[in-house]
Design a protein that fits this description.
Blueprint: H1 4-15, H2 23-34, H3 47-67, H4 78-103
């Protein structure tokens, strides 16, 4: 997969910021890195877990932004990478906002 490196990089940066107290979320992100480069934020995760994931993505975004284009093997990829990263954050935020409006903030029950 051509853009697999981008997915892996985004997920690795998020994983650094997911607390150890959320082992199911950490495992899902780690599995997505090692597996098919896909993660589904479906009914396996509570609204709170998705918020933690979103916060981890935001922190990873800030880390990458601070590191700048020189942190990339080819700095010309940096602007489009950061745009895709920001789009992912926006889409997850919109989904959370939509779920909050539809059911007063309680989306799914975690299947633990």
């Amino acid at each position: 997969m051509k853009a697999g490196w981008a997915f892996r990089s985004v997920m690795e940066s998020a994983l650094e910021h997911i607390p150890g107290s959320m082992p199911l979320l950490r495992k899902a992100v780690d599995d997505s890195i090692k597996g098919f480069h896909h993660i589904s934020l479906d009914e396996r995760f509570t609204t709170e877990e998705i918020r933690v994931f979103l916060d981890a993505l935001r922190k990873g975004y800030r880390d990458t932004e601070s590191a700048g284009p020189s942190s990339f093997g080819d700095p010309s990829y940096f602007p489009s990478y950061m745009k895709g990263f920001a789009d992912l954050i926006r889409l997850i935020q919109e989904e959370l906002d939509s779920k909050s409006l539809n059911d007063s903030g309680s989306t799914h029950t975690s299947k633990k």
